[in-house]
């Protein structure tokens, strides 16, 4: 094993080096990011030279970095200068950046960051300079399209980088070919380590930026209004990843030629999806289609995407990953709703399980719900469930089941104790009613609440079960509420009755009023403010 260092750095700063593994004829390069102890860079050590790019958050500059007077040779770096921040917003941003900076130390597939500085009264994120990006390479090729072999290779690199970020609780939120940088070995790295996420909770001066946390062409539906239609999650990055892969295949940016307002109308309001080209390997086509599910709970995880990239022709894999384009491929299995949810929570013997709940189901729940304990598992993703009252265990497919721990399961409607309520970015208090996203076997939970841009984390002891709602039910604002969170029509000096047409992952409802001849505009509703309406026959 050998290493090399750059003598332009003083001893108090870290060195960049590479490690080589393997025998002499089959060396594998392992990029080792420098462990850096301080993210703050003195403005005098940073010399801007010329602007090389522009994005939604500011300008990108070429610069030189001088650490001390002891070394004459500067280091060439790239600088992202954020243009929209006011003076009072700088300190909160710097505190959040410091946390992300330390978490990203040691990552191999994420752009190296040297730290943060302030130039011309603007925040500057100092990063390693890369000669090009996947977007640049596309521009040099005929038709702006990349060969399949390179797409799989770059996609694998990027998926590993996104997984590194997710393992640290960081969302990228701005995946696109121009942000997928290429190093000197033609490997792709994630070039934007969560700048949109750093802006969460910081009021922005531009009304345009308050709606967008990323680049419009690559943004998931929940990304536009995260506290209302969200929250954002790891699956949000899957949408941007899918957009990037589709662009590599086609050479055309998703929603090319459309304005931000037109993209918002298409993606958020009409629920349109980027078109996945035909003729792709089975696993790639299926996983890309999954990336563009409107409800992020139905999207694959980055781990699922990585498996598909490494096994592009797979239908079933040893990892338990499933890729089914046509349910007839299951040859008579009892899979009713094959999605990706069950893959994110591996079942095991001893788990208490129930029939999986289907989000936005436009019919009453099946009364024949199965509940029981897993007593056996097969290699073909089937499990044996012991159900009370039945002599023999039932053989069921994992995709039809979900784990229940301490009385809670994913998809449950829950209410949060008042002492745990928080305020959202808009200044409004989060709703007290939300939808459980996940629960670990020891009771740690993630819950989506209206009013929060990200998943709330805590313990199930802070929750209790709440009344659930379903598409098709009739509801109205509770009589005791004089000023609801969202506008709601009145009828004869009382709140009108509407019908639920959609439920977002955070429990926010879209309600339509089919009986109104005029002004029949759908309304949003806070689940904590509404009640069911029962009609007598």
From TrEMBL:
Q: Which Pfam families match?
A: PK_Tyr_Ser-Thr (PF07714)
Supply the InterPro entries for this chain: Kinase-like_dom_sf, OCM_Kinase, Prot_kinase_dom, Ser-Thr/Tyr_kinase_cat_dom
Q: Which is one GO molecular function term here?
A: ATP binding
- Supply the PROSITE patterns for this chain: PROTEIN_KINASE_DOM (PS50011)
Know the name of this protein? Protein kinase domain-containing protein
Upper taxonomic lineage: Eukaryota, Viridiplantae, Streptophyta, Embryophyta, Tracheophyta
* Domain Protein kinase stretches: 46-316
